[in-house]
TrEMBL record:
Biased composition (Low complexity): 31-40
Name of the molecule in the record: Copper chaperone PCu(A)C
Gene3D superfamilies reported in the protein's UniProt record: PCu(A)C copper chaperone (2.60.40.1890)
Record-linked Pfam families: PCuAC
Length: 177
């Protein structure tokens, strides 16, 4: 029996809340001047992105390492040559098969008899005229939280982000080591 009064109280509160909200909204409309904030449109945002110059970089040897089904993270290996006159900063990117693409540094673990580990980097810098070599057993790009594991022979869409430049999108094959 105690549930019935509680049920009626909840119904009354549910019906009263929208009426109170409408009343407060109406009062605030009369007491404050209206303000409108310009919202960026999709076309305005995409126009701003296209104004960035293309990164002065040459890409070679790119591939995604083939992995067994159910693997959580993957690796991308490639060579990036800075053809410009100033340093390039690679900050990561996006891919069609993972939630994030992050620069990773291979590290030696102290006191662990030659064992290695990995460390996330905020960016990788490529000096003018130099080539950044991302290769198996060394520094690489990590495909974090894979949505699915791509198959050998498949092509993965990879977009690289460089500070101050337009994103660079590549089609990268999946290969076995």
């Amino acid at each position: 029996m105690s549930r019935i009064p509680l049920l009626f109280s909840l119904i009354a509160l549910t019906l009263a809340a929208p009426a109170q909200a409408q009343h407060h909204h109406a009062v605030s409309d009369h007491s404050m001047p209206s303000m409108s904030m310009p919202m960026p449109t999709k076309s305005a945002t995409s126009k701003a992105a296209t104004k960035l110059p293309a990164a002065p970089v040459r890409v070679s040897g790119a591939f995604v390492q083939a992995l067994p089904p159910g693997t959580a993270d993957g690796s991308v290996y490639l060579n990036l040559t800075n053809t410009g006159k100033t340093a390039l900063k690679l900050t990561g990117g996006t891919s069609s098969v993972s939630q994030a693409v992050t620069p990773m540094q291979q590290t030696k673990m102290t006191g662990m008899a030659g064992m290695t580990g990995m460390k996330d980097l905020p960016a990788m810098t490529i000096a003018p005229g130099q080539t950044l070599k991302l290769s198996p057993g060394g520094d690489h790009l990590m495909l974090y939280r894979m949505k699915r594991v791509p198959l050998v022979g498949e092509t993965v869409s990879l977009t690289l982000n460089f500070v101050g430049y337009a994103p660079l999108t590549l089609k990268v094959p999946v290969k076995r080591l």
